Automatic annotation (TrEMBL):
Belongs to the vinculin/alpha-catenin family. Pfam families: Vinculin. Keywords: Cytoplasm. GO terms for molecular function: actin filament binding; beta-catenin binding. It is found in: Cytoplasm. It comes from the Eukaryota. GO terms for biological process: cell migration; cell-cell adhesion. GO terms for cellular component: adherens junction; catenin complex; cytoplasm. This is VINC protein. The keyword Cell cycle does not apply. Its main location: cytoplasm.
Length: 168
């Protein structure tokens, strides 16, 4: 899980690098730095636990750090969503950066399509308030969970675990 956290760090750096909005870019870089720190901390805790005797407290510390990392990754994804809504600059001909930009643009297009469809098929009551039960807007974290590893090399997803899974 710690190494997967570094994948999201790299993803966040690429999105921040190509975001024209300075405020969104700064927020994303803060989230990336926090994720990087927690990922490194989890890696260290896991290595120490591997060479020491099994104890309940060390296992709890490991689980707690994994949960913190998942929360930090979700923060990166939310900040990346904000940056992607503003739009991204055209990346240089680097395949990794192009893939990240294409992934973000697919999500943005999906979001805009969802919003347009919602405005046409308005589920509103007689007061003009949106009825509950409407489909949620697409999110980057949901899109990453739907991708198969063969169709999206980068960013990798944590296989078998939802990003909101509380068991970690």
């Amino acid at each position: 899980i710690a190494s997967e956290g570094q994948v999201f760090v790299k993803f966040g750096h690429i999105v921040a690098k190509h975001c024209p909005d300075q405020k969104c870019s700064t927020e994303l870089l803060r989230a990336v730095e926090q994720t990087h720190t927690i990922s490194r901390q989890l890696s260290i805790v896991a290595r120490v636990k591997a060479v020491t005797a099994e104890s309940k407290s060390s296992s709890e510390l490991l689980v707690s750090n994994a949960q913190n990392l998942i929360r930090a990754v979700l923060h990166v994804l939310k900040a990346a969503e904000a940056a992607c809504i503003k739009g991204l600059r055209q990346p240089p001909p680097d395949p990794e950066e192009e893939e990240v930009a294409a992934f973000c643009m697919r999500w943005r297009k999906s979001l805009l399509w969802h919003r347009a469809k919602e405005s046409l098929n308005s589920d509103r009551d007689e007061l003009g308030l949106r009825k509950t039960g409407a489909r949620a807007e697409p999110s980057l974290s949901a899109m990453m969970q739907e991708q198969s590893p063969r169709t999206l090399r980068y960013p990798k997803i944590i296989k078998g675990h939802k990003l909101t899974d509380s068991r970690l």
